[in-house]
Design goal:
Layout: H1 25-29, E1 40-47, E2 60-65, E3 76-77, E4 80-82, H2 90-102, E5 106-121, E6 125-136, H3 143-150, E7 165-171, H4 173-177, H5 191-203, H6 205-208
Parallel strand pairs: 1-6
Antiparallel strand pairs: 1-4, 2-3, 2-7, 5-6
């Protein structure tokens, strides 16, 4: 990442339930007595739009992989990627990947979504993908209410790396429910990811039941 694109220092809220993930990748991959060992850790960010009385249905950010990608070309996923050994901790990996793939800055880790998605990557590597619901500074402030008043459908601009992703969308829960790996509005990389996104919506339900009035 060039110097002009570096993440500005921000204060990140970390709930008690995620304190155990403030560890380097090497420590996490080594496993322990209750968790198996993995060769690769991937993180994913579930970013929801705040809701208002004008827009009572929240949406989640999905991005479409580039057509030139070796794995899952043209398929949709949440922002994320592989944790790196240079990341100070797993949670730093979430912030870095979110910024690199969307230009959004993580300000709050809300929760981990599920226990992780396990899969086997090229070279028979054992992998796990951890999903997190997060909030970002560009989105969870005053931008949404003011955009809603103007009838703006896109909450904030998303900056994609065209070598990795080609499009983005804000999808509703109903739209995600229509998706499979081959059909629907946003064909996803795996069925497990679809289920993970739907779980994120389910855990987010308590907020959706209490719309926040727009600023006058």
């Amino acid at each position: 990442m060039s110097a002009s694109n570096e993440i500005n220092p921000i204060s990140i809220h970390i709930p008690p339930g995620l304190q155990s993930l403030i560890v380097p990748l090497k420590t996490y991959l080594s496993g322990n007595n209750v968790r198996p060992k993995y060769d690769l850790l991937v993180v994913g960010a579930c970013i929801f739009t705040p809701i208002t009385t004008e827009h009572p249905k929240t949406r989640i950010l999905l991005i479409q992989r580039a057509a030139t990608e070796r794995s899952f070309p043209n398929m949709w996923e949440v922002p994320g990627g592989a944790a790196e050994y240079s990341d100070p901790s797993i949670l730093h990996s979430v912030a870095r990947e979110t910024f690199e793939e969307t230009g959004l800055r993580l300000t709050r880790l809300v929760r981990q979504v599920g226990d992780g998605i396990t899969f086997t990557a090229r070279g028979n590597r054992k992998c796990i993908k951890l999903l997190f619901e997060i909030e970002v500074g560009e989105l969870h402030g005053t931008l949404i209410p003011k955009a809603a008043e103007r009838g703006v459908s896109e909450p904030v601009p998303i900056m994609l790396d065209p070598q990795e992703h080609q499009r983005y969308a804000w999808a509703t829960e109903d739209e995600v429910k229509q998706c499979t790996v081959t059909s629907g509005p946003y064909p996803a990389t795996t069925e497990a990811q679809i289920q993970g996104i739907l779980l994120a919506f389910a855990l987010h339900d308590d907020r959706r039941e209490r719309p926040v009035p727009s600023d006058g």
